[in-house]
Amino acid sequence: MFGLLNRWLRYLRKMSEDCYTLVMLRHGESEWTKRNLFCGWYDSKLSENGIKEAHVAGQILRDEGFQFDHVFTSQLSRAQDTVQIILQELGQSPEVTKSWRLNERHYGDLTGYNKLQMANKYGLEQVQIWRRSYDVLPPPMTKDHKYYQDIITNPNFKIDGPNEDQFPHTESLKETIMRVLPYWNENIATEIKQGKKVLVVTHGTSLRGLVKHIEQLSDAEIMKLNIPTAIPFVYKLDANLTPTKPRQFLCDEETVSKAMEKVASISGYEEKQ
Ligand SMILES: O=C(O)[C@H](O)COP(=O)(O)O
């Protein structure tokens, strides 16, 4: 009887121990983020500042002694270029896997428009609903949209999909999660459970989807989260990939909260038409 109880207690203790470490980060600032434009599936490059941010992220990971076996990223250059810079700083060459399923959410018809100008046109409240609500879709991108051809013909989106039926014309966080989660379960979670040291480098909304799932946040809680560019954050996970501690950003609290405020706000740059 006692033997059985002891074994059961040992099992429970083991389940709540840190088994795995997962590191995630959002790519460095892109040219379009700098210009305060809705970007989504448009393949905007890293800005000069974004390149610097990626170097700093790599240096932080190097100084903290992280070694990675497998990096997962999206099919968008701003994330892939961030990965290359980080690996250069780390002096490591782990396997790198890219998938459209980790792309930023598709921002529909808003793509390419200035966030502040959209707030002036539709009201700040509506723009914030499009940006942060769980399931309100931005208006869809139609074929006559200025950036439709650029996006639909991106050769990177022909490598592992999406096929025609899967190609989005707009996405909320809910639709983003619906394509990110199967990829997490089938590819990323399986690697972590095999003991591989995994780094995930993606985008604001695809990361919010992953954070929502990992931390089991409610629809209301995730609306309040803004993920800063290029600040790595770490999870300690148990055998079921449940966090044993709160997510930890590898940066001082003040810098993280300022960077989060910057992401939340759209009061910055307004383009001259
Ligand atoms: O696609 C974009 O415009 C950005 O990556 C995220 O922008 P947001 O913070 O307005 O969602």
Question: Can you put this structure into words, describing what you see?
Answer:
The protein is α/β, with parallel strands linked by helices. It has a single domain (17-264), classed as Phosphoglycerate mutase-like (Rossmann fold, 3-Layer(aba) Sandwich), CATH 3.40.50.1240. The chain is built from eleven helices and six strands. The protein has helices at residues 2-16, 31-34, 48-63, 77-90, 115-122, 124-132, 148-152, 173-193, 204-215, 219-223, 253-264, and strands at 20-26, 70-73, 95-98, 198-202, 233-237, 248-249. It has a six-stranded mixed sheet with strand order 3-2-4-1-5-6. Strand 2 (70-73), helix 4 and strand 3 (95-98) form a beta-alpha-beta unit. The longest helix has 21 residues, at 173-193. The radius of gyration is 19 Å and the shape is globular. 35% of the residues are buried. 3-phosphoglyceric acid binds next to helix 9. 3-phosphoglyceric acid binds at residues 33, 38-40, 104, 107, 131, 203-205, 263. This is phosphoglycerate mutase (2,3-diphosphoglycerate-dependent).
Itemize the secondary structure elements and their pairings.
Layout: H1 2-16, E1 20-26, H2 31-34, H3 48-63, E2 70-73, H4 77-90, E3 95-98, H5 115-122, H6 124-132, H7 148-152, H8 173-193, E4 198-202, H9 204-215, H10 219-223, E5 233-237, E6 248-249, H11 253-264
Parallel strand pairs: 1-4, 2-3, 2-4
Antiparallel strand pairs: 1-5, 5-6
The structure holds 3-phosphoglyceric acid.
